[in-house]
UniProtKB/TrEMBL annotation:
Residues 1-98 form the IMD domain. One of its GO terms (biological process) is positive regulation of actin filament bundle assembly. InterPro entries: AH/BAR_dom_sf, I-BAR_dom, MTSS1/MTSS2. Gene3D superfamilies: Arfaptin homology (AH) domain/BAR domain. This is IMD domain-containing protein. Residues 78-98 are annotated as: Disordered. GO terms for molecular function: actin binding; phospholipid binding. Residues 86-98 have a biased composition (Polar residues). GO terms for cellular component: actin cytoskeleton; cytoplasmic side of plasma membrane.
Amino acid sequence: MEAVIEKECSALGGLFQTIISDMKGSYPVWEDFINKAGKLQSQLRTTVVAAAAFLDAFQKVADMATNTREHILYKRSSVNPGMPNLYSSSVLSSALPD
């Protein structure tokens, strides 16, 4: 019984030594992987910030275009008050199929 336990402990000890040896050899690979992952995270963060800034600028352009369109429609309706505004939402929605 004691010999079996000794044999199993020896096998486990050898396995442990092999794992530790492999870990020591793979340390530079893991270190490189961790460094590259950190750089990727930094670049992704920068990309997200740049994309958010772009979307904010694009939203400002869209808001400006909407305000300009509303202003033009308002001027058309005030110049010809008897004429229907062809660009109003009610006229457009009635012209579109359901």
